Give the backbone structure.
Amino acid sequence: MNIRVGQRDDMTAVLSLIQELADFEKEPDAVKITVDDLIRDGFGPQPLFHVFVAEVESEASKNENTKEIVGIAFYYYRYSTWKGKIIHLEDLVVKSNMKGKGIGYALYSEIIKQAEKDKVKRIDWNVLDWNTPAINFYEKTGAKVLKEWHVAQMDEAGIADFIKNKLK
C-alpha cells in the first residue's frame, strides 16, 4: 500500500469512492459533483480541497504493475474563531472489499501528520450516530465524538426558499 497526494488523474477513482460512501450512508442519489468539478475545484489556483489516496497493486493486473486507488482522505482548511486554522476531514473512505487491512488507519494517520505539519489547532469531521465501528475507531485513537453538538445544514432548495420567501 502507498499513501500519496491525489492528482488530477485520480479524480475518477476519487468520485467512485465518494459514491461508495454515499451508498453506505444510504444517500445513493446525493452525489451531484462530477470528475470535472473535482478537477476544477481541487487543482486550480486556489484549491478548495486536498486529498490523500491509498493505492495498492491491482489484483487484476499484478504482472502489469498497475495501481488501484482503494481509499481516500478528503480534506480542506477552515478557520475557527476560537482556535485559528483547522483541518476539516470531509471524507475518509476505504473500498468495502479492502476494509480491515489498515488502509483507513493509514489515511487517518496521514491527515493527523498533515495537521501537525501545518500546525493546525484541531481536526474536525462528522460521523453518523449509527456508524458505531467508526465512532469506536475514532474514540480509540483519542478523538472526542461530541454528542451535544448537532450539524446544521441548508441545501440548495433551502437557500432558494430563504432568498425568495424569508429574506427581508
